[in-house]
Design brief:
Aldehyde Dehydrogenase, Chain A, domain 1, 14 helices, 6-stranded mixed beta sheet, 491 residues, 7-stranded mixed beta sheet, alpha/beta, Aldehyde Dehydrogenase, Chain A, domain 2, 38% helix, binds NADP nicotinamide-adenine-dinucleotide phosphate, 2 domains, 24 strands
């Protein structure tokens, strides 16, 4: 089945407001390109404050009925939506792959599997979420309620479009909130498809609303809307700051999942086979466009040569090209601008005397993808210590290597950046693993692995990588207000 069968008007999308497709007030549209071919894929509403106003009003109208439903009723809606996502997984994966440039197999195995899992997980987790009571004996009993906030805004990036949107949507809905979502203007298609399915799943009109458009116009109007009670945002650190600044005067709750510059600390006793395989995944999955990607390898100087040689061989073997081909490991970067940004870093590496161990150039695959935004997976060593490549988030298939002479030096290098999202530690020694994991400044640490996810665990970053945590009860807490009620022991 082709994805056009799911999206009824693929070439011109609409907003979804109050359960209906709505054209934007201004009648203006933005272009959405297919990264693998550079061709126009769709046109999306260039929504502004009037569209946002309508969406927020629809959500506010829907809130009393939706928040009054039982957890079981809300869960049934999410489960039905999860069933539809599972039924249409192949179509949705096709949409996501076309819109992002990621390999179809990745969109199928990672993105769509996770969308379904997010919906089912929170449908269950919210029902098993206990409330608290504090017994005061003769003085009575306190019990704690968790109440929905009202209308909440969900703003998401382009790298894992539906994966991240559903990660916010499911807990927001299960806790009784109504939603206005704004996906990235670069990847609007899968959200449109999900909204269509949500209608079919019986999620009542107005409970979830979708506005398309640019971040600075549509996103900002959403953030500034006085009726928005919370903003759940995933994206770049600079945008996170803008949103936090706009939300602060109104004391609006924000959850900010931001950028990363994640280290992989490799010790001399690491299992080389396991480490090389792990570092290829951690460095280059989704063309290095995962916030958790480990783009800095910090390796014990005794292991550096052996590791870099093995790694360069493995990275050179990654197959870059048409995302639709089954043996493609790496697809296209998200946009021509982003491709240029990544190439600029490679130029800088050359100017600074860095050694390109593999990759280092743009790539034009044969056939339909010749005009796509491809970059070779790249590994760079011997950059100066203060190179910007060591500190700035490149968000592409570019990994740098630095060596350390001692554990202290390795940890100092790991912690030397402004970010603190994730880290990996590669060693056979359990004591080293625990010690280093404890000292590294990151919200998530994987030992001898990467991206092993348990949806119950806290997810988020330290320092410039964010504020707050998502996942399990952390998401449920974010989307609720806590109320304590005291009952005397006698009336
Ligand atoms: P971005 O430019 O910050 O955009 C993220 C979202 O915010 C998009 O929907 C964007 O809309 C919107 N936006 C931009 N300006 C806005 C404003 N003033 N008000 C409200 N919304 C606004 O990030 P991106 O380039 O899409 O994504 C890449 C970044 O996301 C990387 O830094 C990556 O590390 C981070 N990320 C973090 C996590 C995490 O969990 N920590 C996960 C994934 C990605 P437009 O697209 O229309 O501009």
């Amino acid at each position: 089945m082709r994805w056009e069968e799911l999206v009824s008007e693929p070439e011109v999308l609409s907003n979804w407001i109050g359960g209906e497709r709505r054209a934007p007030f201004g009648g203006q549209y933005l272009d959405d390109f297919e990264p693998a071919t550079g061709e126009l894929l769709a046109r999306i509403p260039d929504s502004g404050s009037e569209d946002v106003e309508l969406a927020v009003a629809a959500a506010a109208d829907a809130f009393p009925e939706w928040s009054g439903r039982s957890l079981q009723e809300r869960a049934r809606c999410l489960e039905r939506l999860a069933d539809l996502v599972a039924e249409r997984a192949e179509t949705l994966a096709g949409i996501e792959s076309a819109d992002t440039g990621k390999p179809l197999a990745l969109a199928r195995q990672i993105d769509m599997a996770r969308v379904e899992a997010n919906l089912r997980f929170f449908a269950g987790a919210a029902q098993h979420w206990p409330t608290e009571a504090h017994d005061m004996g003769q003085q009575g009993l306190n019990y704690t309620r968790r109440e929905p906030l009202g209308v909440v805004a969900l703003i998401t990036p382009w790298n894992l479009p539906l994966y991240l949107l559903s990660w916010k949507l499911a807990p927001a809905l299960m806790t009784g909130n109504c939603v206005v979502a704004k996906p990235s203007e670069l990847t609007p298609l899968s959200a449109d498809a999900l909204w269509d399915l949500a209608n079919q799943a019986g999620i009542p009109p107005g409970v979830i609303n979708l506005v398309h458009g640019s971040g600075t116009r549509c996103g900002q109007a959403l953030v500034d809307h006085p009726a928005i009670k919370a903003i759940s945002f995933t994206g770049g650190t600079q945008t996170g700051r803008t949103i936090a600044t706009a939300a602060a005067p109104r004391l609006v709750k924000t959850s900010l999942e931001l950028g990363g510059k994640n280290p992989a600390l490799v010790f001399a006793d690491a299992d080389l086979d396991r480490t090389v395989a792990g570092l290829v995944r951690a460095g280059y999955t989704n063309q290095g466009q995962v916030c958790l990607c480990c783009s800095r390898i910090l390796v014990d100087e005794d292991l550096k040569d052996a590791l870099t040689q093995r790694l360069a061989d493995a990275v050179s073997n990654l197959k870059v090209g048409d995302p639709n081909l089954v043996d493609t490991d790496q697809g296209a970067l998200i946009s021509a601008d982003h491709q240029q940004k990544v190439l600029d870093y490679m130029d800088l590496a050359g100017e600074e005397g860095g050694r390109i161990l593999c990759g280092g150039k743009a790539l034009n695959p044969e056939g339909r993808c010749q005009q796509g935004y491809f970059v070779e997976p790249t590994l760079i060593s011997d950059l100066p210590a203060d190179s910007r490549l060591h500190f700035e988030e490149i968000f592409g298939p570019v990994v740098t290597v630095q060596s350390f002479a001692s554990e202290d030096e390795g940890i100092a290098l790991a912690n030397s950046v402004d970010y603190g999202l994730a880290a990996t530690v590669w060693t056979r020694d359990l004591a080293t693993a625990h010690r280093v994991a404890g000292r590294v400044q990151a919200g998530l640490v994987w030992i001898n692995g990467w991206l092993v996810r348990d949806l119950r665990t806290p997810f988020g970053g330290m320092k410039d990588s964010g504020l707050g945590r998502e996942g399990g009860r952390w998401s449920l807490e974010f989307f609720t207000e806590t109320k304590n009620i005291h009952l005397p022991s006698g009336f």
